[in-house]
Amino acid sequence: MKILNKILIALFVVGFATSCSDDYFDVNDSQNSPVSSTPPLSLPVAQKYTVDVLQGGYNSMNTLGNLWSYSWAAGGDYVYFTDETLYLVTSGFRTGIYENAYVLPLRNYDVIEKNTDPKYTNYVAIAKIMKSFHFQYLVDAYGDVPYSEALQGAANTTPVFDDANAIYDDLIVQLSAAQDLIANADASALVPGSGNDVMLHGDMAMWSKFANTLKLRILLRQSEKAGLVSQADFDAAVNNGIGFLGAGENILCNPGYLNDTNKQNPFYAAFGKTVAGDPAANANATRATDYAISKLSVDPRRAFIYKNVGTGTTYAGIAQNNVGGPNSASLSGIGPGVLSSASQDGVIMLAAESLFLQAEAASKGYIVGDAESFYNAGVQASFDYLGAGSAAGYLTSYPFPNSTAVNLEAIIYQKWVALIGINGFESWIEYRRTGFPADLPVAPNQTNSTVIPVRLLYPTSEYAANPDNVPTQSSGDAFTSKVFWQN
Amino acid sequence: MRSKFKWIFTLLVAFMMQFSFAQEKTVTGVVTDELGPVVGANVVVKGTTNATTTDFDGKYSIKAKSGDVLEISFLESKKSITVGAATNYNVELKQELKEVVITAYGIARETKKLAYATQKVQAKELMQAAPVNPVTALAGKVSGLNIITKNNGVNPSTSIILRGYKGITGDNSALIVIDGIIQSGTALNSLSPNDIESINVLKGASATALYGSQGRNGALIVTTKQGSKETGLSVEFNSSYTVEKIKYFPELQTTFGPGFNNEYDPYENTSWGPRFDGVPRRVGPILNDGSYQLLPYQAIPDNRKDFFVDGITKINTIALSGGDEKSTFYFSAQRSDVTGITPKDEYVKNNFRLNASRTSGKFKISTGVSFFNDKSNVAGDGGYQTRPLYWSIINTPANIPLTSYKDWRNNKFATPEGYFNEYYQNPYMLIDIARNRSTSNRLFSNVKFNYEFTKWFSAAYSLSGTFFNSYAKNTRDAVTYNPVLAPTRTDANTVASVAEGTSTNTRITSDLVLTFKRELFKDVKGTLILGNALYTYKENNLNVGGNDLFVPGLYNPSVRTGELTGGSSAFQERRVGNFADLTLDISTFLSLNGAYRLDRSSTLKDSYDFYTYGASLSMLDAIPSLKGDIMSFWKINGSYSKTGFAPSIGFINETYATPAGFPFGDIVGLAAPTNGASATFSPSFTKSYEFGTELGMFNNRLNIKANYFNTTTDNEFLTSSTSYASGLAALRLNSGSMESKGIELDVNGSIIKNDNFEWKLGVNLSKIKSEVLSLSDGADRLQTGLATSEVGIFAQVGESFPSLYGTAYTRDAEGHIMLNADGDPIVSSELKFLGNTTPDLIMGFNTSVRYKQFTLSAVADYKTGHKYYNNLVDALEFTGSTQHSASAGREPFVFPNSVYEYTPGVWSENTNITTSNGGFDFWTGTYNAIKENYVVDATTLKLREVALSYELPSKYLDKTFIKGVNLGFVARNIIMLRSAQNKYTDPEFTNDSQQVTGFGTQSQLPPTASYGFKLDVKF
């Protein structure tokens, strides 16, 4: 056949001598898209994606978390959030929480982390911190997930699933490594500008503090189950003098949200108003639960976490799965402290959460400090974020109990309040860890489960594309198969 | 031929009488044919063993008597002469008029010798039911061909799949070649059906080996009409008028009305309200003047169906053709005006064509120029939920007099504020405020030169360009509610917006074909074809849009609020192929063919070169003794080919992109690709073999063709699924393999044939199975069509392709449905195999009966063995309008065919445990979560075409300038028999962009039928 080829080519060589050169065929590359990126270009994208998956729209972790921490329900005239509140958890349920985390933020942080140019040391440190942030939530939601072989792109499309506990251990290592990179960055290392780091605008000391706080969260998560963490772990990981996020140190993200198509804050775009100023698609469907309204009846923050009914001064909620119950117009929606404008910041971690973590750690003796002060500062930080003024009066009704037996319950309840609408996913995780708030209702009017789900199921895509590695699950697992740190 | 032999026989008898005592003498002569002297021709004195052959100069010499008949034959050519007084008889052998088909690169091949399956559809069969779109007219007429019409409407999309699927994620559409030039898939849809002389379907890769990569999926070779030489001028006028009517509207429940939990709600689209009782109830809001609608609470028959109107299609064509001794020409102009079943949907199509040729000695030049233009103006997705119009129509409860809300601007109960439905707007308003307009133009021009250098060597060169552009503009009018008029309504204003775009593409092809024909040895004729084919394609797209337009009635992005949306893209592709094709005809009975093509494609960056080859063999009348009165001919054929395949444009590229929202002011960013591409690529290969046989019986009145084929594609250009944990949502790579195999059977016969009465019947059958052999490493399932997280179209290793997977009932070993403690079915946690979605058996039935001047013809097809998931029904469950949601009277019920765990670990037949709920909660919760409920058997038997025509007897036209008049009644798709489960739609319908069927959505309208008449006049 080779001879025949030569004859054929020779035959037409006259006509196509020029046209057959490789240059002639080199027209396949895209004429419209770049083929690579740099850390300064990748970082703002990755950080925006973090907000999208964490706190953003309908499919975000926050939306599910608010439903599963019984803060939100659908109005009686809307049939909405049905799979979530009927606990119809399958491998097809909320797959974006898993899938989007990997392909959107983690993928782009990973591209940054793999950059070996020493001038991007600070970017690499940020990438490591944010990867740890996301991986903790993946473990908290799913248990074992791909980690050691994850994010290798075309090189490995069937990563193994790593042991959840081992991932947790490595996250501490990675966060410490990020802190070391920041501490040891040489003078030539670029410090991200506010146009590149849309979270902390290049404040590397704050990044280090954030990393320490994440380590604290990772360790505390394991502290309710016997034998997982010890004082030595805390000493090695967080008692390093770097400190934790304190009052006023909210970790926020804002790439420059504004009221325009695709540029609104994603939470506002989903639950606030459209660019034209009309109610967004999910705005009228999302209402307060009766439980939350009653729990917050004397809490000044209620007026900021939930919206007054109509133009009046009353607040009303509805039980989940109450189709045909009170209609949306007679119920409280999301309040102005949580949902304010198209340009509002995305929230990665509230100072209040950090302070409550410190309160718990101090109360348990893991870190030095006064648990009550942390508790009070945490409540005040929550008031501050919501714009609810001074918490002093409220704290007289809800003082820190200063009693080992009930400290945790008080702290976690305050965390639940502080995170309503902002990071309900964390509240759902903390409920699973601590069982608080103890009276948190299991969704009524459903027959699928007598407990709030304890995990998410691996998405269908893993069963399709990675069947040899993904653990087998059944739908009942969502209510029984606990993540390693849960009792 | 028969009559000729009779005549010769008569002469023979006469000569024998006269010269029975004649003396033997030596007869000589030269045998020639169109190539010159014929070497090795047989010369036989009839009825004797006396025979000789011609020498190298074509000369023969034989002893014969006056009155003897000499039979001279060479290959299939035959001639007889009767020896008279003379002694020298020169004989010119003329090739018998053989049936030929046009194959790749315009190469005509003799049908009887083809070693692979092809099937020709003639203009008459194609045109019998006056189609607008020639593709839809192919349905049921060719075995192995699956024509999928994905929707109805004024300009439906189609897919043409030959012999099953070859690619798992790649393109599976057959190559379209019009007058020898490769065209886009849609070019055939837009062709004027009247211009088509024939469509030859080249079914397998062996038939299309010369097209290399582009021929992998088989090809449709379309030949347009050319004028005939020495015919003068003839004029033909065709006109048709057809009416399209909604035929199969979904069967919905008519027992319960709007509301929730058995309580009436005057604003609801959902039918979970109380049972209809005929008592007047308020519908919609109380307006500010205190008025409201008070209507009897009862179902109005066809209230939704009556929204649709009759669609009208008018097609007028004029064609002029003719020629003198050296030239031919054909000119046609056609206009189609179509209005749709959706009010105000319009489609207009114009076609012009000029084909001309001139011969000057050994040189022939021919040219074809055609121009196509269409305009469409249809209702777009709209309303504040941006849903397809059909969704808003079907969300009307059964008691609502929908057609009374036509005048939405003036009727106070039809205005945005007054319309009853809180959640979906008045569809009559939506068709006015959401319009999708588009227009496209295609100019095709082609020039072809033929030069016959010698008797045995000729060259053909053709150069062609196709220039296409389209423009689309989608406009959405603002809807602003007047809060005074609608105090109870939540404000859901929508803003005006516009999106417009242009697309242009240019295809240039240049083909050089050299043909060498010689007799190589005695009884061995060789034909060598060498060719070069160049193909270039360039495409540019540009689109812009704006929202919240602030000048009412003006749809220009420049009067927008906020940022301009839009983007641009550009693609380019270059291919060069060099090919050789050698055919050896050994005597009359054996024909061997080998083809080889070397391709280079710009889409395979680092390994441009790849090859295709094919070999085939056919034997005609291999056992001569079988040939006789019963068997007219018998052919056996077999072929093998290996086709190299290059990916689509940009498939191997990995690019970063600016994500949605960016840039935020001066904050810029680039996102890593989530659709990755492997580092290296090599060509994919499709191997196929086929063998078959063809029998002509009873003087060719009965023709039977049977073929078996097997096609395996390896190393596919696969867009594979990945674990998302890899950081990629999809990876493009070389992987995966699929096998398609099947049998095709065509039986065509003239059952009765005489001067006044003729009955023809044809049956074709294809039984095809495509199976996924492998996907990318470690993956066993890949989404290949529409899918939600709970149900969709997939490729699954080891299953037939494509497969439907979805959530299903949990069943015991006997198939009983297992219930949970509350008496409700348990949904499977994983997706289960629910069937494959392409028919494994397709049968076509064609018949025509002619009695004198009347002809009745009909085409039906039967597709079976596949399943269909209807997302529309799935979504309608929520609205309480499905029939099964009313089947238990909205009360808890004992779930049919179920088992219950009465004692732990022991499941037994459920006789008394009822479902937890019988209303909304059950049907939209548990029942709706089990997608198996919306999967139906997709079997259909469709009567595609029925046509009755009357040809005016020529005696009435003798004294007029009119040469012929044919008048006909036509009907299309008038009967569709479906499985009992399928009460909703045509299981072939799916979204336009999908190449696999099996997943219906709200975007498809109900199935329709068309009726009309046509008139053909020839001058």
From TrEMBL, chain A:
| Protein name per its UniProtKB record | SusD/RagB family nutrient-binding outer membrane lipoprotein
Signal sequence annotation: 1-21
A Pfam family this chain is assigned to: SusD-like_2
Question: Keyword Lipoprotein: yes or no?
Answer: yes
Q: Does the keyword Lipoprotein feature in the UniProt annotation?
A: yes
Q: Which UniProt keywords apply?
A: Lipoprotein, Signal
The coiled-coil segments of this chain are none
Q: Which InterPro entries match?
A: SusD-like_2 (IPR041662), TPR-like_helical_dom_sf (IPR011990)
From TrEMBL, chain B:
Q: Which InterPro entries match?
A: Beta-barrel_TonB_sf, CarboxyPept-like_regulatory, Plug_dom, Plug_dom_sf, TonB-dep_OMP_SusC/RagA, TonB-dep_OMP_SusC/RagA_CS, TonB-dep_rcpt-like
One Pfam family in the UniProt entry: CarbopepD_reg_2
Where would you say this protein principally sits, based on its record?
membrane
Q: Which parts form a coiled-coil structure per UniProt? A: none
Query: What membrane topology does the UniProt entry give?
Result: Multi-pass membrane protein
Where is it located? Cell outer membrane
Q: Which SUPFAM superfamilies match?
A: Carboxypeptidase regulatory domain-like, Porins
Per UniProt, residues of the TonB-dependent receptor plug domain are: 112-218
Q: Which PANTHER family match?
A: FERRICHROME IRON RECEPTOR-RELATED, TONB-DEPENDENT OUTER MEMBRANE RECEPTOR
Which Gene3D superfamilies would you find in this protein's record? Answer: TonB-dependent receptor, beta-barrel domain, TonB-dependent receptor, plug domain
Q: Write out the entry's keywords from A to Z.
A: Cell outer membrane, Ion transport, Iron, Iron transport, Membrane, Signal, TonB box, Transmembrane, Transmembrane beta strand, Transport
Protein name per Swiss-Prot or TrEMBL:
SusC/RagA family TonB-linked outer membrane protein
Query: Has UniProt tagged this entry with the keyword Transport?
Result: yes
Hey, what's the signal peptide range on this chain? 1-22
